């Protein structure tokens, strides 16, 4: 939820954010009107309740002649208080609903527009000149590393098995990411992958992309598409001590996405699948430190990309492609030789106080108790295997192991095709 006081003081900032996202700025006026009704009905209720208490106290002091009239007045006020309380509750619910429809306010400098309006900040690494380019699935099948056919047989489209060296390669990648996170001061976490509607809604994932989330109706629980959700809920309704700096967690979890809006996209291999594993960084910090923490998360992502020796670019994501929670997002996109394009492998988002206000996460600052800022960033995920296999392929179908992963694979330097593949 956005800062309602800030919206009342300068609604044009929120309207401009809505326009930059390609969303309806009229929602701001509806939210302001609903907030005004909430405050008015609450004032009426509190004034009536105060009068009711005063009249009730006067009953014992009234003379016998005055008492019937005073009792009648007290009874009338009691009924009016009940009505006013109901009206205030309804107005509060409507105001919250209106405010929850507003996406986070983008920070200055975010590009306007949609998915294709990003700004490339820099490009890192060199693309190899490959005489013969095999895609990741052809390479993986030659290595007996991925079995898509049996994944489809067992679970349906967009499922797969990681087998043999494929399973080992993913574990190597994720363990390397977790070791880096721990070295940087993150607390390692294995998180729940089922969360309540309150936590899912609090993180902002039940908005425009709710159809991409798996919902277990019988239990009224949601399968998470990132451990960000569970980590954001970890300190819900708590007051944190940030005097020693940000609280940082690295969540390892299996993730689930329906990919409802991606029909026909990246159907070959494991680029866009329903289930994958990921190590996610998550930070709680002060509003004043959020921008610097965002830069630190991006630097840690780039450090991990350097370990697996991938050419990549960093983009500043446009407002219309941020998602409702993020005020700014940077993506790292690795080069994909088989498609001659860049493919997103990491994202890091500054969600400012948006999630914290919804989830009641605060800290004690100089001005009293106030919402924290939350940030997240991908440190490694299954999709990275696609870029690793393609960028490190050799002419005979074998794959060079990046030096940063060799300690996690017993010193193995090259993955070689399996006979008969």
Task: Work out the strand percent.
Answer: 15-25%
List the helices and strands in order: HHHHEHEHEHEEHEEHEEEHEEEHEEEHEE
| Structural class based on helices, strands and sheet pairing | alpha+beta
Shape: elongated
Q: Largest beta sheet, briefly?
A: 8 strands, mixed
Radius of gyration: 27 Å
Portion of residues within helices: 25-40%
Strand order of the largest sheet: 1-11-12-13-16-10-9-4
Outline the structure in words.
With 421 residues, the protein is an alpha+beta fold. Helices cover 39% and strands 21% of the residues. The protein has helices at 4-9, 11-21, 26-59, 67-100, 136-142, 148-155, 165-183, 197-202, 228-233, 290-307, 354-359, 384-391, and strands at residues 119-124, 146-147, 161-162, 187-190, 194-195, 215-216, 221-223, 239-240, 247-256, 275-285, 312-316, 328-336, 341-350, 362-365, 368-371, 373-381, 399-400, 414-415. The strands form five sheets. An eight-stranded mixed beta sheet has the order 1-11-12-13-16-10-9-4. A three-stranded antiparallel beta sheet has the order 5-7-6. Strand 14 and strand 15 form a beta hairpin. The two termini are 53 Å apart. The model has no long low-confidence stretch (mean pLDDT 93).
SSE inventory with pairings:
Layout: H1 4-9, H2 11-21, H3 26-59, H4 67-100, E1 119-124, H5 136-142, E2 146-147, H6 148-155, E3 161-162, H7 165-183, E4 187-190, E5 194-195, H8 197-202, E6 215-216, E7 221-223, H9 228-233, E8 239-240, E9 247-256, E10 275-285, H10 290-307, E11 312-316, E12 328-336, E13 341-350, H11 354-359, E14 362-365, E15 368-371, E16 373-381, H12 384-391, E17 399-400, E18 414-415
Parallel strand pairs: 4-9, 8-14
Antiparallel strand pairs: 1-11, 2-3, 5-7, 6-7, 9-10, 10-16, 11-12, 12-13, 13-16, 14-15, 17-18
Helix pairs in contact: 2-3, 3-4, 5-12
């Amino acid at each position: 939820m956005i800062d309602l006081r800030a919206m009342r003081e300068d609604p044009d900032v929120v309207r401009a954010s809505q326009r930059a996202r390609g969303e309806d700025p009229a929602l701001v006026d509806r939210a302001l009107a609903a907030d005004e009704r909430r405050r008015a009905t609450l004032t009426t209720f509190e004034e009536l309740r105060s009068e009711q208490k005063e009249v009730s106290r006067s009953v014992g002091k009234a003379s016998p002649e005055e008492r019937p009239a005073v009792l009648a007045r007290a009874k009338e006020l009691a009924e009016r208080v009940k009505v006013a309380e109901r009206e205030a509750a309804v107005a509060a619910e409507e105001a919250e609903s209106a405010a929850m429809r507003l996406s986070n306010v983008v920070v200055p400098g975010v590009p306007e527009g949609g998915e294709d309006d990003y700004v490339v900040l820099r490009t890192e690494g060199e693309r190899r000149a490959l005489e013969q380019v095999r895609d990741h699935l052809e390479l993986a099948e030659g290595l007996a590393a991925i079995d898509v056919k049996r994944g489809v047989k067992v679970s349906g489209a967009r499922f797969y098995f990681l087998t043999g060296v494929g399973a080992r390669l993913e574990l190597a990648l994720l363990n390397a990411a977790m070791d880096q996170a721990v070295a940087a001061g993150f607390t390692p976490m294995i998180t729940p992958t089922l969360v309540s509607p309150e936590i899912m809604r609090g993180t902002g994932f039940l908005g425009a992309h709710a159809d991409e989330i798996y919902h277990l109706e019988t239990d009224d629980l949601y399968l998470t598409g990132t451990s960000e959700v569970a980590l954001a809920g970890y300190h819900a309704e708590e007051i944190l001590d940030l005097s020693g700096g940000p609280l940082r967690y690295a969540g390892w979890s299996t993730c689930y996405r329906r990919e409802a809006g991606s029909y026909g996209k990246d159907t070959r291999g494991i680029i866009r699948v329903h289930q994958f594993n990921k190590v996610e960084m998550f930070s709680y910090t002060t509003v004043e430190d959020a921008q610097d923490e965002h830069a630190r998360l991006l630097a840690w992502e780039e450090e991990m990309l350097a370990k697996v020796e991938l050419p990549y670019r960093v983009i500043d994501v446009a407002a219309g492609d941020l998602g409702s929670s993020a005020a700014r997002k940077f993506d790292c996109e690795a080069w994909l030789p088989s498609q001659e394009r860049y493919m997103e492998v990491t994202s890091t988002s500054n969600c400012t106080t948006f999630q914290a206000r919804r989830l009641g996460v605060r800290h004690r600052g100089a001005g009293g108790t106030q919402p924290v800022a939350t940030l997240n960033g991908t440190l490694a995920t299954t999709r990275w295997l696609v870029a690793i296999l393609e960028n490190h392929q050799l002419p005979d179908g074998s794959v060079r192991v990046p030096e940063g992963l060799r300690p996690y694979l017993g010193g193995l330097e090259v993955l070689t095709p399996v006979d008969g593949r």
